[in-house]
């Protein structure tokens, strides 16, 4: 029989606690974003009943359809926080702002500028993370940073973008996000997480006016390694909801 969300969630919490302890960290430092792409509203309600409060979607269209359905089921008192974890096209920025509190996937200056303009227009501040491609995989979104340590050109191009983004009104930059390559052995992606943290430490020194508190890294196949390397937000889909239907 399929495991329930409650059973999966209990197992995940145990694994998070163990990984945190191995690294000498408090498990409470690790926020779980339950990634609900392809998950129907009733399963999201089940996750809410288990105590999960932060949900992540990767597509604006799917979120637009599903979020109201979830809220209709939970009622107006529910405390739900929606994060966008997938790539955002500039032309969908307005719709994304209407749906999400945190956008993990800001990967260009023009996108940040558009979000800033729209946030100011609607009188709010939106929390963003900067998505970084530190692995060099061509299929990944994110600021190109696979050679940031050894290539001053690549590094400084990013620093310049960051300086501009930090000057934009309506945005609160709170850290970095990355999607690691798919690997059968999570140990092989440890260096990816380690490099994102090193980049964060570099930015924190260079731009102390932003918080840089968050490292959004780690998914179902590699979250324990990500926690050992300093993740503060892990994005879990299958670990909580089971395998997704094949597209
Ligand atoms: C789907 C997705 C996740 C969750 O993936 P799992 O492997 O199911 O945990 C995390 N982050 C992003 C950006 C995703 O698109």
From TrEMBL:
Mitochondrion as UniProt keyword: no
Cofactors named for this entry: pyridoxal 5'-phosphate
Modified residues (N6-(pyridoxal phosphate)lysine): 37
CDD domains in the record: PLPDE_III_YBL036c_like
Keyword flag rRNA processing: no
Record keywords, A-Z: Pyridoxal phosphate
Pfam families from the UniProt entry: Ala_racemase_N
One GO molecular-function entry: pyridoxal phosphate binding
Family from the record: Belongs to the pyridoxal phosphate-binding protein YggS/PROSC family.
Main function: Pyridoxal 5'-phosphate (PLP)-binding protein, which is involved in PLP homeostasis.
Official protein name in the record: Pyridoxal phosphate homeostasis protein
Organism: Thermoflexus hugenholtzii JAD2
